Design the sequence.
């Protein structure tokens, strides 16, 4: 991206490098990130290639009637995160103009109302577990869509800890809600509770933490440390 921006800056110096990179290249030119960026336990600079080169064909132009890409995006989002509001969809993808896509497929969707009376959309055959289904302890990576996938993040994280969702903190879910953060120190998974955890919850967190530590370890060690709960 820096190489492309340097070329563009020679012709359009006024906007600045960041604006050229974010607004011109990233927003207007379809590209794909090339390996080795994002490989397991490997780091590298971001390298981009034209999406048409990556796919081996030209990118399909927009359809003259309707928005099949937008409609597909709505279906894919609901398949992962429904039931959800139209506002949740916009917050997740940051795209405007999706109300038309939602309206185009409205007849194939089902609707519900949440406890605040908001309309929730979903696919008709999507799984919807019983509200009393137990939610096991889960360790989430930074910026996980379970948190970022909705406009109302209060459904999974308390307002007091809302900033964690955009600060790159890795969190632990207990009974379906953010209850702790976690990190790795040497070969140990360290859990820091955000609220008091019951003895059963601490046991469940430690068990799941050991599985994570074993997965991350080169030698299969499963060391985990759960810090004291705040008073």
Sequence:
């Amino acid at each position: 991206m820096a190489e492309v921006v340097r070329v563009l800056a020679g012709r359009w110096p006024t906007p600045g490098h960041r604006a050229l990179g974010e607004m011109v290249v990233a927003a207007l030119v379809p590209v794909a990130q090339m390996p080795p960026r994002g490989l397991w336990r490997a780091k590298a600079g971001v390298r981009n290639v034209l999406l048409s080169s990556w796919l081996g064909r030209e990118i399909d132009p927009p359809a003259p009637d309707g928005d099949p890409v937008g409609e597909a995006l709505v279906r894919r989002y609901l398949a992962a995160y429904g039931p959800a509001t139209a506002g949740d969809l916009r917050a997740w993808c940051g795209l405007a103009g999706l109300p038309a896509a939602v309206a185009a497929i409205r007849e194939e969707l089902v609707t519900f109302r949440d406890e605040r009376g908001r309309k929730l959309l979903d696919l008709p055959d999507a799984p919807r577990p019983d509200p009393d289904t137990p939610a096991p302890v889960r360790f989430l990576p930074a910026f996980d869509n379970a948190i970022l996938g909705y406009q109302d993040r209060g459904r999974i994280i308390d307002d007091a800890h809302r900033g964690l969702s955009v600060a790159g903190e890795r969190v632990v879910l207990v009974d379906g809600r953010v209850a702790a953060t976690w990190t790795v120190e040497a070969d140990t998974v360290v859990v820091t509770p955000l609220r008091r955890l019951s003895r059963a919850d601490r046991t469940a967190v430690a068990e799941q933490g050991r599985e994570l530590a074993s997965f991350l370890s080169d030698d299969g060690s499963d060391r985990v440390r759960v810090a004291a709960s705040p008073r």
